[in-house]
Design a protein that fits this description.
3-methyladenine DNA Glycosylase, Chain A, 9-stranded antiparallel beta sheet, 3 helices, DNA-binding
Length: 200
DNA sequence: CAGTGGATGCTCT
DNA sequence: GAGCATCCACTGT
């Protein structure tokens, strides 16, 4: 399998609603451990469900910074979640990375997660941060420099969409994107899904 | 399979 | 004091 070219940081310099589906099939590694992005969600600056909606705070400061960087926050007091910041600087939009198909560093992930089943290594935003050892220390770091490595998405992928998970506002926006047929999703896509195709 | 509740830290009201 | 962009263990079909 050929190693994909590395994504340029200008990849993130556009609307989060373009970037989110474009990330499906990309390769995401932290210190060489990770896999293929199979599930994401988009959060934009006019979105009541987004952390940046009510303005800048110490927690969400990375969302208001340059695109192409990580925004990492603690979820429910226990887990970490990682986003990729998008749009023009100050746009406060970001893509939540929700699931990976593990491809690199499987033994490391197995140990960190304390599980044997590879399907559960990265099937959820908290799980994938545990598997890749992402913490607050990564908040605000550029995605095109170590310890991160981002590879260009595969072409010819089929993408399913649906409502986002675990939110109580703007619940009807279909801004969750998944790789069709993947066994590594955090949850299946429901009946209301739509299918997009990306070819080149 | 579905549903429930606990763990836990931080932000904002 | 409420409310989380979650996960896991447990219960009952």
């Amino acid at each position: 399998m050929p190693r994909p070219r590395q994504l340029h940081r200008s990849f993130f310099d556009r609307s989060v609603h373009e970037v989110a589906p474009a990330l499906i099939g990309a390769t995401f590694l932290v210190d060489g451990v990770g896999g293929t992005v199979v599930e994401v969600e988009a959060y934009d600056h006019e979105d009541p469900a987004a952390h940046g909606y009510r303005g800048r705070t110490p927690r969400n400061a990375a969302m208001f910074g340059p695109p192409g960087r990580a925004y990492v926050y603690r979820s429910y007091g226990l887990h970490w979640c990682v986003n990729f910041v998008c749009g023009p600087e100050g746009d406060a939009s970001a893509v939540l990375i929700r699931a990976l198909a593990p491809t690199a560093g499987l033994e490391v992930m197995r140990k960190r997660r304390g599980l044997e089943d590879a399907r559960l290594f990265c099937a959820g935003p908290g799980r994938l941060c545990e598997a890749l050892a992402i913490t607050r220390a990564h908040d605000g770091l550029a995605l095109d420099r170590p310890p991160f490595w981002l590879g260009a998405p595969q072409t010819d992928v089929e993408i399913v969409t649906g409502p986002r998970i675990g939110i109580s506002k703007a619940v009807d926006q279909p801004w969750r994107y998944g790789l069709k047929g993947s066994r590594f999703l955090s949850r299946p896509f429901g009946r209301a899904r739509r299918t997009l195709s990306r070819t080149r």
